Amino acid sequence: MPSAHAVAAAAEPVFVYAVRARAEPGLMPRALELFAKRGLVPLLWHGALAGPVLTIDIRIAGIDRDTAEYIGRCMGQIAGIDTVLTTTG
Asked: Taking Cα atoms as reference points, which of 24, 89, 32, 33 lies closest to residue 53?
């Protein structure tokens, strides 16, 4: 039988960010800061480089939809980030 904490965690929505950006050294920490300053640790953080393009996939739980959308908009304003897609997964 799963614990009450495990059941509550499973009920939380998980938000997924798909980020496409220029390959710049300071870009990933600037994006991660949006979560860190809220005391959040992503469930998944994966970055991959393909030539001059950096793709970052992020999954996060423990936030509501409004906050998730706000973080996505803030991420899109970071210099060097071209595209941010936010979905629920």
From this structure: 24
- Residue pair 76/17 in contact by the 8 Å Cβ criterion: no
Q: In what order do the strands lie in the sheet with 81-88?
A: 44-50, 53-61, 14-22, 81-88
- Residue 59 β-bridge partners: 16, 44
Segments forming the whole domain that contains residue 42: 13-88
Whether residue 6 is contained in a domain is answered as no
Residue whose entry in the numeric block shows the structure tokens 């941010």: 84
Within a domain: 2: no
pLDDT in tens, 23-63: 998 999 999 999 999 999 999 999 999 999 999 999 999 99
Strand 14-22 to strand 44-50: parallel, antiparallel, or no bridges (unpaired)? unpaired
What pTM does this model have?
A: 0.85
